[in-house]
Amino acid sequence: MVEHAHEHPQPHDAGHDAPVAVDTRPKLAVWKFASCDGCQLSILNCEDELLQIAENIHIAYFPEATRAIVEGPYELSLVEGSITTPEDVRRIHEIRAQSGTLVTIGACATAGGIQALRNWADVDEFRSIVYAHPEYLSTLDRSTPIASHVDVDYELRGCPVDKTQLVEVLAAFLNGRKPRIPTYSVCVECKLKGNVCVPVATGTPCLGPVTQAGCGALCPSYGRGCYGCFGPQDSANTDAMTRQLTELGMTGADIVRVYRTFNAGAPEFAAASDALEAAAAASAGGGEPS
Ligand code: SF4
Ligand code: SF4
């Protein structure tokens, strides 16, 4: 548990008139790896809450918000982005070593993000198409989540993360308790809101049954199917999901694409998409899927 006292004046030094203030608030650092910065922007979007947070936490390292840098160690680190370069691998170990609690924020940090699509492709080909001098790039052939490299104390899902969940994680840290973050599906949130079920009413595919709650069933509330940006829920039944998407008329290739979006690298979604590709390959070859 972390103390979060405010600035306390120290006793007067003999021969000095002004007391020396010591900032005893826990230090927060926000780090970026391969990402679009959207999750860091969600922190800044907390606006009113951010002022209250800043009273209780010393925002010591947050380059997206301020150039002022206070040296570590840090009691709390929030980490955005995935590991895609050898330098990232070195840096995340360094960050872990100087962080008391480390929380990963967003689909990039928790599942490799959209950039995990490279895990099914030839990264050298991507590199040579996009860059005039690919020889200057040092990159890994896979995009991996932070937890594949160091111990992570807590993961916050979403693309981007939800502002309310961010505030809950910070409040839980300050009070020395576990964050209250649901692990059930988007369908639960959707039903609690009284929404009409999109696939039932309109036949629109929806990943809500296999996706972790947290967004407040945002897309179904506007008549769109869930895109799965919070990643797989606990015990996601992707076999049943695949069957339902097929019944709604989606091809195997389309279903592969919906699993491989924001959380392509999440094990459950990766396995479901791999199974579809294996079945398609077996069917094209006239054999059984391996
Ligand atoms: S999880 Fe989404 S919003 Fe957050 S950094 Fe990655 S791409 Fe951006
Ligand atoms: S609209 Fe989607 S998230 Fe909502 S209940 Fe139906 S399947 Fe679940």
From TrEMBL:
Domain of life: Bacteria
Protein name listed in UniProt: Coenzyme F420-reducing hydrogenase, gamma subunit
Keywords of this entry: Oxidoreductase
GO molecular function terms attached to this record: iron-sulfur cluster binding; oxidoreductase activity
Transmembrane segments: none
InterPro entries hit by this protein: Hydrogenase_assoc-protein (IPR051349), NADH_UbQ_OxRdtase-like_20kDa (IPR006137), NiFe_Hase_small_N_sf (IPR037024)
Sequence ranges assigned to domain NADH:ubiquinone oxidoreductase-like 20kDa subunit in this UniProt record: 36-172
Keyword check for RNA-binding: no
One Pfam family named in its UniProt record: Oxidored_q6
